[in-house]
Fold each of these.
Amino acid sequence: MIAIPRQKPVFRFAPSPNGPLHLGHALSAFLNRDMAQAAGGRLLLRIEDIDLTRCTPEFEQGIYTDLEWLGIAWETPVRRQSDHFAEYQAALTTLIDRGLAYPAFLTRGEVKARVAAAGDPWPRDPDGSPLYPPDDRERSEHERQAMLASGIRHAWRLDMMKALDFIGEPLFWEESGDGETGRIAADAARWGDVILSRSDAPSSYHLSVVIDDALQGVSHVVRGLDLYHATAVHRVLQTLLDLPAPIHHHHRLITDADGRKLSKSNGDTGLADLRAGGVTADDIRHLLGL
Ligand code: GLU
């Protein structure tokens, strides 16, 4: 019998270099490393730096320093998203050509004004942000082309209802994390017309993450529960772009004393500050209950 080589599981830790890493990142990195080791798999590090206004080389260097200190090894070369804008643009073009994406001209202020002017409560996505108003989706092709030709700043958004119609069947993902587990129904409609390419960056989190996970052969996505619902959007994009669906594990979030999710401005839980205060990598594992 011929032995068919089995692909090794591939895990990735994918921080954004827009602030110092904190305890929540350490949990994510440790879980990715521990699960990769237990599965005999590989661990990749990906730098998610599409937001060039907030990401800096210093924060990127901080990620390497913190991970080394934690004793976590990753494969090189590291994929840095800002080196791959052309790949994200190519995927966006595919969606535009199929009529599933439209140029979005409303500014943040205009969206806010629409929401404020509406009599009824405006629908919100799982993160609490108002859904993008229908104005741009409803424009005629003629008007759209005229606006594009005039050079108005714009983003690109997915026409979610059209995309779901195009897919034509319910989507699911496999979940093994700290929330609901098993086969999870992906409810992407509640996100509305998500952003695919920003007006200030030629991609978006959702678009880059599904392309990178596919190109890097990621089989297991281990990340915080704050991204649990975003997985529905990722399943839609994976299906539209014919990309494989990884298995997901969304882990518990580390909260501050008031029960709030840690943010990059929570200096006291920053790994570099903890290290400077004499805390060891082992202490961090204990602090995290690992
Ligand atoms: N870059 C994201 C973050 O720093 C994580 C993305 C992901 O794991 O899918 O929160």
Amino acid sequence: MTELREGDRIRIRKKTDSGVVVYEGIVMPTASRNIVMKLDSGYNIGIHPEDVEIEVVDRLGGVKEGKKEVEREIRTGKKGEEHLPSLSILSTGGTIASKVDYRTGAVSPQFSTEDILEAIPELGTIANIKGKVIYSILSENMRAEYWKKLAAEIYNEIKNGADGIIVTHGTDTMGYTAAALSFMVRTPVPVVLVGSQRSSDRPSSDATMNAICAAKVASSDIAEVVVVMHGSTSDDFCSIHRGTNVRKMHTSARDAFQSINEVPIGKVYYDASDLDKMRFEFCSSYKKRGEHELELRDKLEEKCGLIKFYPGADPAILDFLVGQGYKGIVLEGTGLGHVSAEWVPSVVRAVKQGIPVVMTSQCLYGTVCDRVYDTGRDLLHAGIIEGEDMLPETALVKLMWVLGQTTDMEEVRRLMHEKIAGEIKGRRVREGSLIP
Ligand code: GLU
């Protein structure tokens, strides 16, 4: 049998009862005796090497090392086309910057910004593009300290004249980063986070359409931190979500991102045949270009925790975080904002120690209101802060940001109830006289 190497493109002919079936794809690493190949559809199959004809169609000439580039600036696009806006693409990794790694068989972030631009040359017709790789990570490895660097890079790019920013990001934690940047950067230009659910080596990849829609939004007059991702299962439009109210709601669907507790800012319709024909449809109001002065407010208290309550959950979980020196805690309670009665003494202790405890709801939709049931009223007496209609993760990121600005408990309480970056939408729940 021909000696196969990982990364070879091969064609296999296999005789079956109904005739010869041909498979073509890339050889993947395997510990088994079978040949494992990634088909062009993106799926992997295993084929027993006996009784098949194998032809090597293309050979990589060795296993490629992943790029180790950390930070580098390049410029591409139509230089000198002054009428085009200047956009900066800041790459952090994720699927949109990934390809199959033939050493491990896994999808890993390897594309530099230059690679993204090579893969999507249309971007150069929309704007003059400057690219910079900030991180090459899968977004589950994102951390609050990385948000600070990212916020500072965005600030610098805008200060140096960028008309819009695109942040390429893994989809898993893109909502957290979008919320963090919404609080940390007051922006006079669009700051657009974009990712893809399916890597660019798959025919159903959403990378190209999402990136093009992101470039259109980054060139528009929406001066907010937003997430731009597929809005339907087809390739017809991307939704523009406000950075504080967006969530990944599906593990793999291309239209996984949804605005929670509000409609998206709008849609950008995709037209692959003529990018100039792409149009916007707006569903709600938004901050316009130049409405804000550029401001960087990047102080964060990173030692904040998020606890999801479940029936029978032990309040020792909260005591543990307090004992570990956590400075603020968000609870993801049930319904209107509840934890069981046995948690109340632990909440009282935390608040007495000066640790703000914020209640959000695992319902995600609706506003927290602890005035209705006994357990809620007890929590209000204990000094809990109602997280209004914020997503739990937005409340967490906001608490980090608020504690970065002040440690005065009353000021923390006031700021958590104040709408700072569109994170509070609905009916304001008053604390009234129940607060001690
Ligand atoms: N888990 C990885 C990440 O969030 C890949 C998922 C993706 O980018 O869609 O970076």
